[in-house]
From TrEMBL:
Name this polypeptide is given: EGFL6 protein
Compartmental location: Secreted, Extracellular space, Extracellular matrix
Secreted among keywords: yes
Keywords on record: Calcium, Cell adhesion, Developmental protein, Differentiation, Disulfide bond, EGF-like domain, Extracellular matrix, Repeat, Secreted, Signal
One MF term in the entry's GO annotations: calcium ion binding
InterPro entries, per the entry: EGF, EGF-like_Ca-bd_dom, EGF-type_Asp/Asn_hydroxyl_site, EGF_Ca-bd_CS, Growth_fac_rcpt_cys_sf, Nephronectin_domain, NOTCH1_EGF-like
GO biological process: cell adhesion; cell differentiation
Family: Belongs to the nephronectin family.
Length: 197
């Protein structure tokens, strides 16, 4: 089977037919499935969607059980956690919904970790890091766009001269460069390329 558009998080099962891995959806399996919006709801109390999966949390005063249900807990109610808690060896600990969040100084609320500035994020050379609450993603650098080429997604240079998104003067030539472009005044004209006289 050949899928010309590719299956990002899935397998090609027939001509241009993708079978998505759990937690993903879309024609090319490139979209995260929001399990929290499914019926029946996967969590008893609070649901937090994550990339390719989800996590369950309990309301304050309840504790998350191994089977995903929420059980009433007097100790959890006393601690007053933002995203519920768990008891480990008789100690009550507040939880955070993802690895991109950490417990704040008060030990009850969750604060964002900026993976882009701490260097925890790994983006390839032609992508830039964008921080989000609880996570991050890698976006194509300016002057590049995401395309599906030879079996994978990659950031490729935008040819501004072809797409006509350059700002060269009417009397200038546009020259494409990696991630950008240059303007050169035509013969008989002088200037920066953006202004030619």
């Amino acid at each position: 089977a050949i899928c010309g558009h590719g299956c990002k998080y899935g397998e090609c099962t027939g001509p241009n037919k993708c079978k998505c891995f759990p937690g993903f959806t879309g024609k090319t399996c490139n979209q995260d499935l929001n399990e929290c919006g499914l019926k029946p709801r996967p969590c008893e109390h609070r649901c937090v969607n994550t990339h390719g999966s989800y996590k369950c949390y309990c309301l304050n005063g309840y504790m998350l059980m191994p089977d995903g249900t929420c059980a009433s807990s007097r100790t959890c109610a006393m601690v007053n956690c933002q995203y519920g808690c768990e008891e480990v060896k008789g100690e009550v600990q507040c939880l955070c919904p993802s690895g991109g969040l950490q417990l704040g100084p008060n030990g009850r609320t969750c604060i964002d970790i900026d993976e882009c500035s701490t260097g925890k994020a790994v983006c390839s050379y032609n992508r830039r890091c964008v921080n989000t609450f609880g996570s991050y993603y890698c976006k194509c650098q300016l002057g590049y766009e995401l395309k599906y080429i030879s079996g994978r997604y990659d950031c490729v240079d935008v040819n501004e001269c072809v797409t006509n998104t350059h700002r060269c003067n009417l009397h200038a030539e546009c020259l494409n460069t990696e991630g950008s472009f240059k303007c050169k005044c035509k013969q008989g004209y002088r200037g920066s390329g953006f202004d030619c006289a």
